[in-house]
Recover the amino acids of this structure.
């Protein structure tokens, strides 16, 4: 399994490319650009106080878990493509447990056919200028006490929910296009909702375009939505 691995140790960030369990290249700081991974994904973790990663222009096909998987680290992800997952539980980009790190950014990525396109948990992330399509759970999720913006994205053909601000998160959701969100008949809270705030979340909305998404925009479970 191929992956991209960031480990923070002794206040330095060591960047390595790992193939079959062997470190084949690495440097302090780092940028990964171009290239493709088949049957695997990039992984970034940061156990200490190290810096952030830059991932640009990568292609991930056939991942079994997450296309790009980030834990306790900040990342700048630009121009990636994640598609053709190996199973129904694969997420495109997952950035989690990084609230004590610098702001992360995901921009200009194309993510198709995964469970959740871009998802955050307890992290500060700006999600901008991405195209997310045909997800089976949600297109973009800012969840579990995350903070950040979801701006200028296209979320097309999501099953159930297009964009969600979830679980005590605070989200600015601006200038997105959400189209063709499908009704999930198994769950009344997933009725083709374009934008949803759920469980004590706070969402600020401005300039979004909603097309053919019968659930529209809604706030549930003590959440609030304000329109600017």
């Amino acid at each position: 399994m191929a992956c991209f691995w960031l480990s923070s140790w002794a206040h330095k960030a060591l960047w390595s490319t790992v193939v079959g369990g062997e470190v084949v290249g690495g440097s302090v700081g780092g940028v990964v650009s171009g290239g493709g991974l088949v049957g695997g994904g990039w992984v970034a973790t940061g156990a200490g106080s190290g810096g952030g990663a830059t991932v640009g222009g990568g292609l991930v096909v056939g991942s079994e878990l997450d296309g790009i998987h980030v834990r306790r680290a900040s990342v700048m992800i630009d121009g990636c493509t994640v598609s053709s997952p190996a199973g129904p539980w694969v997420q495109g980009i997952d950035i989690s447990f990084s609230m004590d790190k610098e702001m992360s950014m995901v921009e200009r990525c194309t993510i198709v056919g995964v469970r959740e396109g871009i998802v955050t948990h307890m992290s500060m992330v700006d999600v901008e200028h991405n195209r997310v399509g045909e997800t089976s759970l949600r297109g973009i999720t800012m969840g579990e006490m995350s903070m950040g913006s979801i701006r200028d994205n296209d979320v097309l053909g999501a099953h159930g929910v297009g964009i969600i601000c979830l679980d005590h998160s605070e989200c600015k959701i601006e200038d997105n296009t959400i189209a063709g969100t499908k009704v999930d008949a198994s769950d009344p809270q997933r009725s083709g909702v374009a934008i949803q705030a759920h469980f004590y979340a706070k969402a600020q909305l401005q300039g979004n375009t909603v097309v053919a998404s019968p659930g529209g925009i809604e706030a549930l479970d003590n959440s609030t939505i304000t329109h600017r």
In short: The CA atoms of residues 108 and 130 lie 5 Å apart. Confidence is low (pLDDT under 50) at residues 1-34. The chain has one domain: 59-227. The radius of gyration is 17 Å.
